[in-house]
Amino acid sequence: MNEIYRGIWVVAYRELLRFVQERSRMVTSFAFPIMFLVVFGAGFNRIVGPMTEGVDFIQFMYPGILSMTVVMSSMFSGMSIVWDREFGFLKEILVAPISRSGIVLGKALGGSVTAMLQGVILLTLAPFLGIHLTALMVVKYIFLVLLLSLSLSGMGIFVATRMRSQQGFQMVMNLLIFPLIFLSGVFFPVDNVSPWLQMIAKLNPLTYGVDAIRQVFLSGDAGLGVTVMGYKMGIIEDALIIGVLGLSLLSVSVWSFSRQE
User: Fold this and answer.
1) Contact yes or no for 172/163 (Cβ under 8 A)
2) What dihedral angle (degrees, nearest 10) is formed by the CA atoms of 164, 161, 8, 148?
3) What is the distance between the alpha carbons of residues 251 and 101, in angstroms, rounded to a whole number?
4) Which helix (H) or strand (E) holds 4?
5) Chain centroid offset of residue 95 CA
6) How far from 48 is each of 67, 220, 252, CA to CA, in Å?
7) How many Å apart are CA 56 and CA 69, to the nearest integer?
8) Which of 87, 108, 215, 234 is most buried when burial is the number of CB atoms within 10 A of its CB?
């Protein structure tokens, strides 16, 4: 059992070390969400106006931007599998005394911790946006970020197991990430759009991650929760949906990676 945990830790540590050493990746991972916050916030804040009492468009969008950062970082964690395959390092990992499930969990954990660190750093923007943070809010936020990033890391790893080039993986990820982001309620209240768009958004797993994190920062009585079949989703219900999704995606990723030769 200790060997399994040690293998997971070694793979996760390698992912963290790679992220720290790639300064360009670190810079772009922070610059991209800030750019969205500044451009969309400055451009639409006066046009859109308050989303609900005491919540303007920038405050509404901020939790969604945090979720977007987690999504992009965790889903691209599968890139390392494609990189290792192209340069032959994956064969060395596969013959190492580490189970296939340990490799997948290690890469997912490394991607999740990376996403969590990015999300925690972006919390420094909250006071400038008029959002007061408490210790309990930060604890809830970290838990949700880890849960969401683990779930979406499973999706990224599954796609990576089917790819043979970094270019192909990036194209598929871009095709997945942007619809997930724009149809998750990051920029609009899901319950206030047309029925057909509501249906698509409520089938989007990221919607529940955005909703949970938004409720942490804006509280559940802000009138911005997602309604499913007449029931207003709370943080616990959102977390359960994300957890079930994550377990399913990680299981499929382990199965797909186990078929690697």
Assistant:
1) yes
2) 120
3) 9
4) helix 2-21
5) 30
6) 21, 21, 41
7) 21
8) 108
Please give the structure tokens belonging to residue 176.
């997945």
Tokens linked to 259: 């078929």
E-state strands within 70-199: none
Single-letter amino acid, residue 209: G
Instruction: Determine if residue 124 is left, alpha or beta; phi over 0 gives left, psi from -120 to 50 gives alpha, anything else beta.
Output: alpha
Q: What is the pTM of this model?
A: 0.83
CA 111 to CA 157: how far, in whole Å?
10
Is residue 65 within 8 Å of residue 36, measured between CB atoms? yes
The pLDDT > 90 percentage for the chain reads: 1
All residues at 6 or more sequence positions from 151 whose CB lies less than 8 Å from its CB, including other chains: 205, 209, 242, 243, 245, 246, 249, 250
For residue 166, give both structure tokens: 């970094």
The count of residues in the chain is 261
Closest listed residue to residue 114, CA positions, set 156, 170, 60, 158: 156
pLDDT at 12 over 70: yes
Helix (H, G, I), strand (E, B) or coil at 114: helix
Q: Which of 144, 146, 151 is nearest to 235 (CA)?
A: 144
